[in-house]
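Incident log, structure service

09:12 report received: a user says their structure output differs between two submissions of the same chain.
09:20 pulled the input from the user's history:
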Amino acid sequence: MKKAILPVIIAVCAGLLSGCGKSNKAARTPDPVTQPEAQAALFQRTSDRVRSLIAAKDYDQARRTLEMFKDYKLTPEQQQIVDKLQAQIPAK
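09:34 re-ran on a clean worker, output below:
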């Protein structure tokens, strides 16, 4: 009986762990149409982070953080902010 339970426990654990580590960027980025407040708050926090990185002259991290906006559905105003932030980062 004990030998029959062990494979079942292993199969259950493997099934639970199989989804670990997978990411779905689309699910993490709020849609401005359906979740405008969440998207605006996330955009604000991320753009504030980029501003602080630029002020600290950590341009590589600022560039990587701005890359996150590629997954966002930005409003025209937000796109202008991203463009202005990108202009503040010196070319490599």
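09:41 both user submissions now match this output. Likely a transient worker issue. Closing.
09:42 reviewer note: The two ends are 65 Å apart (CA to CA). The CA atoms of residues 49 and 84 lie 14 Å apart.
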